[in-house]
Amino acid sequence: MITLTGNSLTLEQMKEVLVGNQKVHASVTSMEAVQKSREAVERIVAESRVVYGITTGFGKFSDVLIDKKHVQDLQLNLIRSHACGVGEPFPENVAKAMVLLRANALLKGFSGVRPVVIEKLLELVNKDIIPVIPQQGSLGASGDLAPLSHLALVLIGEGEVFYKGNRMDSLEAFQKEGILPVTLEAKEGLGIINGTQAMTAMGVVGYLEAEQLAYESELIASMTIEGLNGIIDAFAEEVHVARGYKQQIDTAARIRSYLSDSLLTTMQGEIRVQDAYSLRCIPQVHGATWQALDYVKEKLEIEMNAATDNPLIFDDGDKVISGGNFHGQPIAFAMDFMKIAVAEMANISERRIERLINPQLNDLPPFLSPEPGLQSGAMIMQYVAASLVSENKTLAHPASVDSIPSSANQEDHVSMGTIASRHAHQIIQNTRRVLAIELICAMQAVEYRGVEKMATQTKRLFDKGREQVASIKQDRVFSKDIETAAAWLKTVDFNKFTKKLSVENGSY
């Protein structure tokens, strides 16, 4: 059971909930702060004080005063009118993350919602009742209004959910679990939808997948090095210490660990003096990706524990400040950075694929074909990798450089952070398929070289990989192989796998 405080949620804990189905609950201290904040809102309503979003309209309507007798109508109208997202729904794990993150933000005690609202959010998480939330429609400032409104619809018994493999009306799922919807009171609708949880949730899921891919890419690249009789000298520790980047040093150390007992690697001058950059510069390029991912991780863990709605309530209600913490610029930049970093993993992987199949660049059978000419082998797999890489280049264009005014120019600069996070997620899926193709080609190459000469650790990857994709003895529909390998890379826990291997080897 993970205890939420509003201040201490980590990416590892998010992974435990999203992958391990760990349950969550709110800390008693945090709930006490929530109650105090709620009492402040109730005093504001009772005293008819003019406070944005509590006794006024929203956005450009901030100067319109609302009578206290319409408090519930104001919140209900807000949710219904703002729930206008379009397109395919977010993946279920992203929507679940969104619910959890919104509850955690409200637990900070600055938002003025009742404890029952947070309890209801956590009940959705623990019972796997996942809101159906359309992906498109957020500008990434003034919060992820449209996506989070679809989340809020579920709390009031409207909208749809995913429940036990089915898509259904939220009330139907509530009835199955004995849950009652809530009636939103003053500030609560605004408190739920005014935040960055859509972009952050997509970013969290994207980061967890990207981190796993980054580890996988190093082990797959190590097998490619063996398939091409790569020069191991380029990974020597002193080379990378001389430059000084920790992530580059660590990547080189893992490559050395994976290949420590390989009989397929060579020394400089043994076959050639230098390898091409896509082999020789793996630590430099992959290390730079790790630098970007470290930046993304830092920003996500701040945002996961941030108060991102408006207004925020301080000093037991004596201070209610309209600010701009809902603006997604920090996450927009982080997501654009992640897009570029992961796209580069695919770029260099595709170049290694080319070196594995191009007969002008190696001494392997052309296109790794079992019968060159009669059978095409991996020829078109490289086409697919090239296509995915090119698509990534389009998706990697930074969304955060764009802005468009909204709400009659009241909200005149926005982040587009949710677009950035969605594009990052797509780049990650594309990159996984590119790495799947590299794995298929690398396995074929080491078969020609002699599997018995492989390093212990890459041989383990080869054996597991061959359980997923058979050796190419005859041309077949390789689309199935690519998708099978990609699905395997997504589900196998390579993060722990590679760390375990490094510890076993004793060199990292």
TrEMBL record:
Post-translational modification: Contains an active site 4-methylidene-imidazol-5-one (MIO), which is formed autocatalytically by cyclization and dehydration of residues Ala-Ser-Gly.
Family annotation (InterPro entries): Aromatic_Lyase, Fumarase/histidase_N, HutH, L-Aspartase-like, Phe/His_NH3-lyase_AS
Principal localisation: cytoplasm
An example molecular function term from Gene Ontology annotations: histidine ammonia-lyase activity
Alphabetic keyword roster: Cytoplasm, Histidine metabolism, Lyase
Cross-link (5-imidazolinone (Ala-Gly)): A141-G143
UniProt key word Lipid biosynthesis: no
Record Gene3D superfamilies: Fumarase/aspartase (Central domain), Fumarase/aspartase (N-terminal domain)
Catalysis performed (reactions): L-histidine = trans-urocanate + NH4(+)
Keyword Membrane: no
Domain of life the protein comes from: Bacteria
Subcellular location, record wording: Cytoplasm
Pathway: Amino-acid degradation; L-histidine degradation into L-glutamate; N-formimidoyl-L-glutamate from L-histidine: step 1/3
EC number: 4.3.1.3
Modification 2,3-didehydroalanine (Ser) occurs at: S142
Top EC group: lyase
Family: Belongs to the PAL/histidase family.
Protein name: Histidine ammonia-lyase
Organism: Neobacillus ginsengisoli
Top-level taxonomy: Bacteria, Bacillati, Bacillota, Bacilli, Bacillales
